[in-house]
Design goal:
alpha+beta, elongated, membrane
């Protein structure tokens, strides 16, 4: 056979070569698709799984400060998708202790997207609760006067329990709040650490940071303030400059938190189960600027 002669055409060999080519091409395409899936799905999930401690410690606590009119329970962290990471929680509106109302828990989520930003947060200022409205009056140039508070309290049965905001005439130390609470059998459950008229001030309470290293010591409700302050300061210490942008989503700033924790001064406090009779007495104390009644309830057996 001369060098110009072509070999005989072999259909079987041709088909085998075509099949090998198709298999090779299909393998390359499948490998490419698998790599794409890993990049678009698996890798984001692995990235989202990182930083769950920060989400639990920083975001959950900041959300409780963002919603002072609710008692918030945090679920297990976290629900992860390729595009987001969510922290489930439930919230119950604060009411005076002892009523007959149903404590309906509503589910919510704090969601961080793939780009590191937080999706629109539920509740907060939009909830427009009575607690938030009262807190926004702390430090106001025209607070609820004592005379107005006397009139309101005079119209309520003395055994009735109230959710009340007690504002001091001047900021008090934790020890001063303890002495005040002991004197009037008060229970400062949430402490207001700044005056911010027209907006929500920084408010902190026991167990707002669920993994707080601070152990309860006093055993008495009026002894809460030093422990609340210690927990607040412990939480402040874990905050990093990189948290500043996220804190703004919760209507907080790192500078405000730092200052409030350092000063440790109580401008007011929330008591969720104080009797009207006690409120009448403490209202006359020069240390008290005003008392706001947020909610009331009573045990019908006492009437």
């Amino acid at each position: 056979m001369s060098e110009l002669d072509l070999p005989d055409f072999d259909p079987k060999a041709t088909r085998r070569a075509v099949r090998r080519g198709l298999l090779k091409t299909a393998s390359l395409v499948l490998a490419g698709l698998l790599a794409l899936v890993l990049v678009l799905v698996v890798a984001p999930i692995l990235v989202q799984r990182g930083g769950t401690d920060r989400m639990y410690d920083v975001y959950a606590t900041a959300f409780k400060m963002y919603t002072p009119g609710y008692r918030v329970q945090v679920g297990e962290c976290c629900e992860v998708t390729p595009w987001s990471k969510s922290l489930p929680l439930t919230a119950t509106q604060l009411r005076a202790y002892g009523g007959f109302y149903g404590r309906a828990e509503a589910p919510y989520k704090i969601t961080k997207n793939l780009f590191g930003g937080l999706d629109h947060l539920p509740l907060g200022n939009e909830a427009n609760t009575s607690v938030a409205a009262a807190l926004s009056m702390v430090g106001h140039k025209d607070p609820i006067g004592k005379e107005e508070a006397r009139e309101i309290l005079a119209g309520l049965p003395k055994a009735m329990r109230a959710l009340a905001l007690v504002e001091f005439s001047r900021p008090a130390t934790a020890e001063q709040v303890v002495a005040f609470g002991r004197r009037y059998e008060a229970c400062p459950e949430r402490i207001v650490y700044e005056a911010r008229p027209g907006s929500l001030p920084i408010t902190f309470g026991s167990f707002m940071w669920e993994r707080s290293p601070v152990e309860p010591k006093s055993g008495w409700c009026h002894g809460n303030p030093p422990e609340i302050l210690a927990e607040f300061r412990s939480w402040d210490k874990i905050l990093q400059p990189s948290d500043a942008d996220d804190l703004r989503d919760f209507d907080l700033t790192l500078d405000r938190v730092r200052k409030a924790a350092k000063d440790g001064l109580a401008y007011a406090y929330l008591d969720q189960g104080v009797k009207v009779e006690r409120l009448r007495k403490l209202l006359e104390d020069p240390q008290v600027l005003s008392v706001a009644i947020i909610d009331v309830t009573f045990d019908i057996a006492t009437f």
